[in-house]
Amino acid sequence: MQSSSKVSQLNQTDNKLVEVENLVVRFPILDNGHRAYIRPVDEVSFTIDSGEVLALVGESGSGKSTIAKALLRIVEPQSGTIRVQGNDVTHWRGGRLTTYRKNVQMVFQDPFGSLNPVRTVEHHIAYPLQKHRHLHGRALRDMVGSLLERVGLTPVEETRVKYPHELSGGQRQRVAIARALAVNPKFLVADEPISMLDVSIRAGILKLLNELRSEFNLGYLYITHDLASARYFGHRIMVLYGGKVMETAPSHELIRNPSHPYTRLLLAATPGSGLDGPLPETSNQAPSLIEGRTGCPFAERCPLVVDACRKEDPPVVRLSEGHEVACHVV
User: Fold this and answer.
1) Alpha-carbon distance 43 to 289, whole Å?
2) Which end of the chain, N or C, is more open, meaning fewer C-beta atoms within 10 Å of its C-beta?
3) What average pLDDT does the chain have?
4) Long-range pairs of 261-267 with CB within 8 A, sequence gap ≥ 24
5) What are φ and ψ of residue 54, in 5° steps?
6) Cα–Cα distance, 308 to 56 (Å, whole number)
7) Distance CA 189, CA 197 (A)
8) Domain 14-117+185-202+214-326 of CATH type 3.40.50.300
9) Is the pLDDT confidence value at 2 over 50?
10) Long-range contact list for 150-159, CB < 8 A, 24+ apart?
């Protein structure tokens, strides 16, 4: 195996930053005492360019965080391909995986749970700088200060010696963002980074993430259940249900012209939609994730369901440039 010191950096010349093709993640379960498998991510494909934000939306259990963990190589894909800057990283291990993780970082949902409560702010940011960029002494201290200032945590000298419990939720999330930036990543996975924050400070965090995207040409996979923030922050929106992609479109197009029945239900459930009364769905039954399932996962809840929806996987229909929907009826 090639030593980590000889592992090359990711290719910097490829046009596409992230390319995911037919990604499948499965987990074993016991079904009536017999071993079986579920597929929380089932044949998912998408691309993300440098400087682009792909917003991934869907209800809890739809597979959003599992996709994130597969991209971070926290879980091993069963099949499919993950390419970052032209490199197939799907099954990288050892030194190559360490190199990969310098280029792909994550901002977690819980800003308190993602930080060590017995370590100072300075320690959280200094550790990746020491491990991956080999900074020490004055250079390390200066870089920590620079990162704290860049994410708006001032005065720097007071902030660096504080512990997570001494910070607000928004400040803790800024520490997490500074830690992610410390290794000069090319791509960030932001897994519901504002859902546990006060409403008053959510816009500030999204504004910071957008500024960093522009300044460093970062690509983002922005995971959320909030269509309003997806429209504000995302260039494109991908709608996920039961581990499968229902619809993908530019943000303004999807909000203005939702085509899949599930996308329409999500928009109807959004505050301010104008819907008065119950959602127009036929059931609240959760989708089957069992391996070998057939048909559309949304069939049991869909108000437009036809026989083919329960028997056959829906075809992907291209409605316009960048707008695709997986639906028999559409």
Assistant:
1) 12
2) N
3) 89
4) 261/298, 261/302, 261/303, 261/304, 261/327, 261/329, 262/298, 262/301, 262/302, 263/239, 263/325, 265/301, 266/57, 266/58, 266/59, 266/227, 266/239, 267/227
5) -100, 115
6) 27
7) 18
8) yes
9) no
10) 150/178, 150/181, 150/212, 151/175, 151/177, 151/178, 151/181, 151/208, 152/204, 152/208, 153/121, 153/178, 159/121
Summarised one tens digit per residue, pLDDT across range 8-30 is 344 444 468 999 999 999 999 98
Q: How far apart are CA 210 and CA 291, in angstroms?
A: 38
Distance CA 33, CA 291 (A): 16
d(CA 91, CA 82): 9
Q: In what order do the strands lie in the sheet with 79-84?
A: 34-49, 16-31, 79-84, 87-88
Q: Where are the domains of the chain?
A: 14-117+185-202+214-326
Alpha-helical segments (H) within the chain: 64-71, 94-103, 121-133, 137-150, 156-159, 169-181, 199-216, 227-233, 251-256, 261-268, 307-311
Chain CA centroid to CA 104, Å = 11
How far, in Å, CA of 311 to CA of 328, rounded? Answer: 11
Q: State both tokens at 152.
A: 């708006």
How many CB atoms within 10 Å of residue 263?
A: 24
pTM listed for this prediction: 0.89
What amino acid is encoded at 261 in this protein?
P
User: Phi/psi of residue 316, each to 5°?
Assistant: -90, 120
Q: In residues, how long is the chain? A: 330
276 compared with 314, residue with greater pLDDT: 314
Spatial neighbors of 295 by CB under 8 A, at least 6 apart, are 308, 309, 310, 311, 312, 313
Count of Cβ atoms closer than 10 Å to residue 301 Cβ: 21
Q: Which residues of 103-140 are buried (b: 16+ CB within 10 A; e: fewer)?
A: bbbbbbbbbeebbeeeebbbbbbbebbeeeeebeeeeb
